Amino acid sequence: VKVKIPFGNKYLDAIFSVPEKKPTYGVILTHGAGGDMNFPHLVSLAACLASHGVLCLRFTCKGLNIAYRTKAFKTVVEYLKLSDDYKLLGVFLAGRSMGSRAAASVIRHLSQEDDDDFIRGLVCLSYPLHRPKLQSKLRDEDLLFIRCPVLFVSGSADEMCEKQLLEGVASKMKAPKKIHWIDKANHGMAVKGRTTDDVMEEINAQVFSWLRENIELEHK
């Protein structure tokens, strides 16, 4: 279902992937610095989630300024929260690369503003912890403030997320967290000798099983 979400004097293009049964949880998903919501990994993940009963709303926001991207993401969260079509118990915020930074930033901002529990967790695909070859300046400030569960799915050969550095940040985080390494994958999740579909299946399976664990934990 295509929708246009009001954002200032513009609109954000977005698409709902809707499960057959009425969903109780949703995932909001966005892209990295390049591309848009039709990036193949996002389309594949949205279809996988919807087929397993989780509503997925993915959106495009082209700005390269992280504050602007964060503001757009926050607008989409409010839009879904107030939606009459889908009455959800909670959502997970998810993004690829820069989109995961924006998602982390939104969670940090919202947790400082209100303490409702609409946001249940964060999924970071290829979190860009540092610029390539610039490992002295880590983009970890939002992660250290987050309290809800966090899943990282990163390539072990990601030039923007050195393995030991992410593990070091994770050890300092207060939130329950899990890291799944895609062996030999780079920042774009490409792995020599594996097809894109094969890699996407691994990512999708990890994201869904983590969501299921966290939703089940809540119902116990």
Q: How would you characterize this protein structure?
A:
Pfam families: Abhydrolase_11. It comes from Fregata magnificens (Magnificent frigatebird). This is TEX30 protein. Residues 27-209 form the KANL3/Tex30 alpha/beta hydrolase-like domain. InterPro entries: AB_hydrolase_fold, KANL3/Tex30_Abhydrolase, NSL3/Tex30. Helix 1 (40-51) crosses helix 6 (196-219) and helix 2 packs across helix 3 (98-113). The chain has an eight-stranded mixed β-sheet, sandwiched between helices. It is globular, with a radius of gyration of 16 Å. It has helices spanning 40-51, 66-81, 98-113, 141-145, 163-172, 196-219, and strands spanning 2-7, 10-17, 25-30, 55-59, 90-96, 119-125, 150-155, 177-182. The longest helix has 24 residues, at 196-219. It is built from six helices and eight strands, in the order E-E-E-H-E-H-E-H-E-H-E-H-E-H. It has one domain (2-218): Alpha/Beta hydrolase fold, catalytic domain (Rossmann fold), CATH 3.40.50.1820. With 220 residues, it is an alpha/beta fold. Helix 5 links the parallel strand 7 and strand 8 (177-182). The mean pLDDT is 93.
